[in-house]
Amino acid sequence: MPVGSGQLTKMVNQICIAGVVQGLAEGLHFAKSAGLDGLKVIEVISKGAAQSWQMENRYQTMWQGKYDFGFAIDWMRKDLGIALDEARRNGSHLPVAALVDQFYSEVQAMKGNRWDTSSLLARLEKTRD
Fold first, then answer.
1. pLDDT by residue (tens digit) across 73-122?
2. What is the tally of structural domains in the chain?
3. Residues identified as active-site
């Protein structure tokens, strides 16, 4: 592998995580809005195609509104910024990563700088109020 492949691979990881966590946040938000028991819903769907590490390890804390268990928003925004800069350089189009980065900036505005990346649900809950 060429020099720098590790850094680029980490960028791919962060891009993928951003989309997965946003999807999980939206799913849980929808479940709450629909009056479903989100914990039971996730127990069922986590056995199928929607399964992910984020789902298995963050859905319970997200459902409880607890966001101090993982990688901080400030760090994720730094990493996404690096990935988005590289995407501009190499001609990649990352519309979901750019949108999730914007959502994370909204979480920062909610004083969530040190909350973990799963706090995207807090942003959705705020917009529902």
1. 999 999 999 999 999 999 999 999 999 999 999 999 999 999 999 999 99
2. 1
3. 10
Domain with residue 123: its CATH number is 1.10.1040.10
Burial 17-40 (b: 16+ CB within 10 A, else e): bbebbbbbbebbbebbeeeeebee
Contact 86, 97 (CB under 8 A): no
- Pull the structure tokens for residue 7: 């850094």
Give residue 55's identity as a one-letter amino acid code: M
Name the DSSP class of 72. Answer: B
- DSSP for residue 70: S
CA dihedral 106, 111, 116, 117 (to 10 degrees): 0
Quote the CA–CA distance of 17 and 54 in Å, as a whole number.
8
